[in-house]
């Protein structure tokens, strides 16, 4: 899809918020359009006052959620055989689905949260969640809380980089991995402190 980058950028440049929503929807429907491209450029448009951070976040989340839910139902209704047979016609690589499946098999529904910040997996994790018939309310919750910080992070970096926003296209994967590691560490420290306080109360 890299050869279409200029087309996507032109689409966002002309249609603004609507284009961001549409492209984020496609990205979360397993069409390989890098979110760093969509949100990074949107961040640049915020930098030059053609968008606002709040509205870009809102439309990015709406598009992403719609795309994720549609993909969930593809997995839920069609199952793995359907995706393996017809997915190639919609740019769904079997190897990418396998990676997402491995994550889901290992971490269950919580993978829907953490994988939203990881390359490749964030785009395809909706499929194994659908295959497993995960409760739709849980799926929507974990998708939302996982997608929101990622969306805000990439918009914010694009905004801060300004004219140099395209740097993210080169280091986007490293950013996502680092961000996910930081979140895991924060979650671990928070859980440790919570457990320690709970234990101290029991001893009293």
UniProtKB/TrEMBL annotation:
Q: Does the keyword Oxidoreductase apply?
A: no
Q: Which GO terms describe its cellular component?
A: plasma membrane
Pfam families (alphabetical): VTT_dom
List locations, semicolon-separated: Cell membrane
- Transmembrane ranges, per UniProt, are 15-46, 53-74, 113-132, 139-161, 173-192
Source species, domain of life: Bacteria
Keyword Cell membrane among record annotations: yes
- Bilayer disposition of the protein: Multi-pass membrane protein
Which keywords has UniProt assigned to this entry? Answer: Cell membrane, Membrane, Transmembrane, Transmembrane helix
| Residue ranges annotated for the VTT domain, each copy included | 33-158
Query: What does the sequence similarity comment in the record state about its family?
Result: Belongs to the DedA family.
Q: Tell me the protein's name.
A: Membrane protein
Q: Which organism is it from?
A: Anaerovibrio lipolyticus
């Amino acid at each position: 899809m890299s050869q279409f980058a200029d087309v996507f950028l032109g689409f966002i440049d002309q249609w603004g918020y609507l284009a961001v929503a549409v492209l984020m929807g496609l990205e979360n429907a397993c069409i390989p359009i890098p979110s760093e491209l969509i949100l990074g450029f949107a961040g640049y448009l915020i930098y030059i006052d053609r968008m606002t951070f709040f509205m870009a976040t809102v439309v990015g989340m709406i598009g992403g959620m719609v795309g994720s839910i549609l993909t969930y139902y593809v997995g839920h209704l069609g199952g793995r055989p359907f995706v393996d047979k017809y997915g190639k016609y919609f740019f769904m690589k079997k190897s990418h689905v396998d990676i997402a499946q491995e994550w889901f098999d290992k971490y269950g529904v919580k993978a829907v949260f953490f994988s939203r910040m990881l390359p490749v997996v964030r785009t395809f994790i909706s499929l194994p969640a659908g295959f497993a018939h995960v409760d739709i309310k849980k799926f929507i919750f974990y998708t939302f809380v996982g997608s929101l910080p990622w969306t805000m992070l990439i918009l914010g970096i694009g905004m801060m980089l300004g004219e140099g926003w395209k740097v993210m296209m080169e280091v986007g994967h490293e950013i996502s991995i680092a961000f996910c590691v930081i979140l895991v560490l924060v979650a671990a420290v928070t859980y440790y402190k919570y457990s320690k306080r709970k234990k101290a109360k029991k001893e009293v």
